[in-house]
Amino acid sequence: MTKNLIKQMMKKVDEKSHILDSDALIEKINSGYIAKQEPKFTKKKTFAPSGLVYGHGECPRYWYLAFEGNIFESDNEPYDVANMTAGTMSHDRIQQAMLDSGVAKKFLDEKYFEETGKERDTTEFKVAQSDPPIFGWGDAMLEIENEEVVGEIKTMKSESFEYFKNKGEPADYHVKQLIIYMKVLGKAKGVLIYENKNNHDLVVFPIEVTEQYKNWVNTAFDWMRVVYKSWKDKNLPQKNYRSNAKICKGCPVKTACALAEPGVVKIDSLKGFDETV
Predict the structure, then answer these.
(1) Which CATH number belongs to the domain containing residue 193 in this structure?
(2) Longest Cα pair distance anywhere in the chain, in angstroms?
(3) Which secondary-structure segment (H or E) carries 66?
């Protein structure tokens, strides 16, 4: 009697399992991640430090087309969007911990105020200047031993976290972003705060301005001025890469770039630390 009852129950469970198509549901959820990533017209007004120091950000032709205004496309996969969203949520959590501990200055959360009309504190603040035109958001202004230190938060999976922790130094492009902020703000010290997404461990990398960093950031500012002037003068930069280059594959204006004219001015790509004398 008991065996028959168990068989009947298992049969009902098995029948129910076929009602739901698991793969279809997963596919539907994943489609939600990229639902808002349709190609759209975008016109940049400023250089973004976070975008400048990685991938297509080093390409003068990209910035010309971005300032001119073009259709931006995204090739992010659902995992990429989920990962970025998780990173944003981690930023919020770490920033709240900084506020609660008193280690970071308080600023009005302008984004939240614009959305809700309500005020709340945040550690995030604007980083902006006009020459060259730069705009970004700093993660935190830390108050350490009566000195203001620019803080930038980066979250990453365990493998990357352990790599940089064991190496004892952060990624170059993270340093570049931070020292751009430091130059705009006139601050001599900064800190990169890395979090392990897997277990929330933290590692901190203090950053001070060296001659190498100073040379690079001054060169980067001059490069931005040249690129911005090329757009103002309507002198499209020539292509610095083949169309199948890795740097072009993830570029949001790659279609616009392919359709644009060959270009009339040669501007080198933004150089790295080791290339800057």
Answers:
(1) 3.90.320.10
(2) 88
(3) helix 60-68
Radius of gyration (Cα) for the chain, nearest Å?
24
Amino acid identity of 63?
A: W
DSSP type of residue 171: -
Given a cut of 90, whether residue 32 has pLDDT beyond it is no
Region class of 157: left (phi > 0), else alpha (psi between -120 and 50), else beta: beta
Task: Name the region of 108 (left: φ>0; alpha: ψ -120 to 50; beta: rest).
Answer: beta
Determine how many CB atoms are found less than 10 A away from the CB of residue 267: 20
Calculate the average pLDDT of the chain. Answer: 91
pLDDT exceeds 80 at position 20: no
pLDDT tens figures, 220-241: 999 999 999 999 999 999 999 9
Whether 240 contacts 59, CB under 8 Å: yes
Q: Which ranges in 186-268 belong to alpha helices (H)? A: 211-232, 246-249, 254-259
E strand or H helix at 87: helix 78-101
Domains of the chain: total = 1
pLDDT the model gives residue 11 = 56
With a cut of 70, say whether residue 125 has pLDDT above it.
yes
Reference 75, options 41, 37, 27, 48; nearest CA is 37
Domain that holds residue 90: 1-277
Q: Give dist(CA 151, CA 173) in Å, integer.
A: 15
Residue 17 has pLDDT above 70, yes or no: no
Tokens 């064991």 locate to 166
Half-sphere exposure of 23 (CA within 13 A, CB side): 1
- Pairing between strand 70-72 and 107-108? unpaired
Regarding pTM above 0.85, the answer is yes
Cβ atoms of 189 and 208 closer than 8 Å: yes
Q: How far is CA 163 from CA 30, 50, 160, 167, in A?
A: 30, 21, 5, 6
